[in-house]
Amino acid sequence: MTKIGMFCYHICLFAIRESPSITTGYSPSELVYGRKMHGLLAVTRDVWEQNDLVQRELKEPVTKYLSELSKRITTALDDARENTIKHSTKYDKKSTERNLEVGDQVLILLPTAGSKMTAECQGPFL
């Protein structure tokens, strides 16, 4: 996985862990850690409400940084969608649609008893 892909993966996981559940009203992180996570929106709010050291370290306004980060994430997601479509069409070129009817003999690819990583065909079955 690329660096951008891993970055998007971690950002998405962070967002999921920070979002409260409809049923419980608490986020998964609150249930595990017992306190709210300090996410990107909380950082922005802290900067607006008080003069925070984060802005001095970034050397640019936090809102500008977050908007650029959002644009980069959107670009990465668009690229991922395009790559998925490109790779799936390349993969699907050799695939064929099979229509099975009752009474057709088939082979079934099943994992072997000794290892989960190997499989062998068994059959024919009706």
Description:
The chain is mainly alpha-helical and 126 residues long. The protein has one domain (3-92). The protein is 55% helix and 10% strand. It has helices at residues 3-18, 28-33, 40-49, 53-58, 62-92, and strands at 106-111, 119-125. A two-stranded antiparallel ribbon has the order 1-2. Strand 1 (106-111) and strand 2 (119-125) form a beta hairpin.
Globally, the shape reads elongated
Task: Please give the order of strands in the largest beta sheet.
Answer: 1-2
Order of helices and strands: HHHHHEE
- Helix/strand-derived class? mainly alpha
- pLDDT < 50 stretches: none
> How is the biggest beta sheet arranged?
2 strands, antiparallel
Helix content: 40-55%
Residue-averaged pLDDT: 78
